[in-house]
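Annual report, structural modelling task.

Input specification for the MTE complex:
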Amino acid sequence: MLRKLGRLRTSGEDGGGPTVPPGQFVTEKFPVLTFGPTPKIDMSSWRFKAFGLVEREIDLSWKQLMALSKTTVDVPFHCVTQWSRLENTWEGVAFAEVMTQVLLRPEARYAMVHCYGGYSTNLPLDVLMDDDVLLAYRHDGEALTPEHGGPLRLVVPKRYGWKSAKWVNGLEFMAEDTPGFWEARGYDMRGDPWKEERFWRSLS
Ligand SMILES: Nc1nc2c(c(=O)[nH]1)N[C@H]1C(S)=C(S)[C@@H](COP(=O)(O)O)O[C@H]1N2
Ligand SMILES: [Mo]
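The model returned the following structure:
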């Protein structure tokens, strides 16, 4: 059940400002939003690659990724279809921690996040390096289910949900901002929920 948020947190509660971006409804549920089927992923052949504008490509196994240090963040999740789930605890590896394994070429400014199943989304590196961005494998104390992006998904709390790519398997580093799956189909290149950067043209 989606309920309209008629309540803005007052300054007494957390220092002021609304907790929900404009045009969003709050839900306690966790809807599944996927274009197409949930991909079947075999963990023995699972890989995470970094390529494009890197000095050397990397190709990590699950074990290698899990050897990196872990982090937990408590953050909201805002889908462009207007639901916001305000309290989410994600556990995983900080994006910045993954980047300790990658030596970028100086021209790299953006990343295309690639996924099992063929989905992709583009983000600037400065957004990805924020300390609340992670590659998550747990949500609210449970292993991330396949529908929600297990074994591993990106979480970018300060952008609409379509940027939080599920079933991530690679990062492609780029000099120019290039549209991903939804961005090529009318979604905004940036997708900041506080600025309501939803679509760059009306979707048919
Ligand atoms: N690989 C992949 N990642 C994806 C999507 C998708 O279709 N495929 N949908 C996006 C959208 S639009 C949203 S709102 C969130 C939803 O995540 P959830 O299904 O865990 O709620 O996943 C995003 N990541
Ligand atoms: Mo979404």
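The two ends are 26 Å apart (CA to CA).
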